[in-house]
UniProtKB/TrEMBL annotation:
Annotated compartments: Cell membrane; Membrane
GO cellular component terms, semicolon-separated: plasma membrane
Family: Belongs to the 4-toluene sulfonate uptake permease (TSUP) (TC 2.A.102) family.
Membrane-protein topology: Multi-pass membrane protein
Keyword tags: Cell membrane, Membrane, Transmembrane, Transmembrane helix
The keyword Metal-binding is annotated on this UniProt entry: no
Subcellular location, principal: membrane
Cross-referenced Pfam families: TauE
Membrane spanning residue stretches: 6-37, 49-67, 79-97, 109-127, 147-168, 180-203, 215-235, 247-264
Lineage: superkingdom: Bacteria
Name this protein carries in UniProt: Probable membrane transporter protein
Length: 268
């Protein structure tokens, strides 16, 4: 059983991740994975499993947080459902493959890969520059391939894919509000396929703690999802009342710190 200190830590982490997701329109995975890794390490889970489990557990939380986010965006008519339908098939394939690729990486390589991804995302947030519209959305084959790339990256790092899908859609002439809303809708198929993949490829793995389902640690999933879903709407409301650009810069610094921790983890 989990002690009260661990429960409180997971609640605080889930609340912070959910608030940040609602406030800044990012997936909680970039915040959650390093913190879950720290907690799993402190709990004595085998070092070769901590990052795999942190990524899998983080990805599974998006099943719940994406539904909350999509509902709000859909009420404003901002989700481009035809775009979702075109990207979803490739995303489902890529999100299944991503965890398999992650499983082939040893823990230090996976930690370093995640660190690079977070540092890139932090830089993107710090600069705050959106790509200029350069072309229209591609055809069916191009959207399938793009969805595959988004899904694979998301499956490897346990994130919702927004830092890939939003710039892509903006580059293709989609308005930023529609791109963010549509990206939120894409989080569910990413999380669904990636979660099933993490259960499948983690099934029977030696050294997994009790109450694990494949690479997913169910107690942590339940607590983090509860806190994240509760706080995401508050973050979204706050976004309309505060200078989000300054908050993005502060959050970018936090992400750099988390990336540094993952690089440190990769070296030890």
């Amino acid at each position: 059983m989990m002690d009260i200190g661990l429960i409180l830590a997971l609640l605080a982490m889930g609340a912070f991740g959910g608030f940040a997701a609602g406030l800044l329109g990012i997936g909680g995975g970039m915040v959650l994975v390093p913190f879950i890794t720290m907690i799993f390490t402190a709990r004595g889970i085998a070092p070769e499993l901590t990052i795999h489990m942190a990524i899998a557990t983080s990805l599974a939380t998006i099943l719940f947080t994406s539904l909350s986010s999509v509902r709000a965006h859909h009420k404003h008519g901002a989700v481009l459902w035809p775009v979702v339908k075109m990207l979803a098939p490739g995303i489902l394939v890529g999100s299944w493959i991503g965890p398999w690729i992650g499983k082939q990486m040893n823990a230090p390589v996976l930690a370093a890969f995640f660190g690079v991804f977070v540092a890139f995302s932090a830089t993107q947030m710090l600069i705050g520059k959106k790509p200029a519209a350069a072309r229209a959305l591609p055809g069916t084959a191009g959207m399938f391939a793009t969805g595959g790339v988004i899904g694979t990256l998301s499956g490897i790092v346990g994130a919702g894919g927004g830092f890939v899908s939003v710039p892509f859609m903006t580059w293709c002439g989609v308005r930023i509000h529609n791109a963010v809303a549509t990206s939120a809708a894409l989080g569910f198929p990413i999380a669904l396929s990636g979660t099933i993949s993490n259960i499948y490829f983690g099934w029977g793995e030696a050294g997994l703690p009790e109450y694990s389902l494949g690479f997913i640690y169910l107690p942590a999933l339940a607590i983090i999802a509860l806190a994240s879903v509760s706080m995401a709407p508050l973050g979204a409301r706050t976004a309309h009342k505060m200078p989000v650009r300054q908050l993005q810069r502060v959050f970018a610094v936090i992400l750099y710190s988390l990336a540094t921790y993952m690089f440190w983890k990769a070296a030890h």
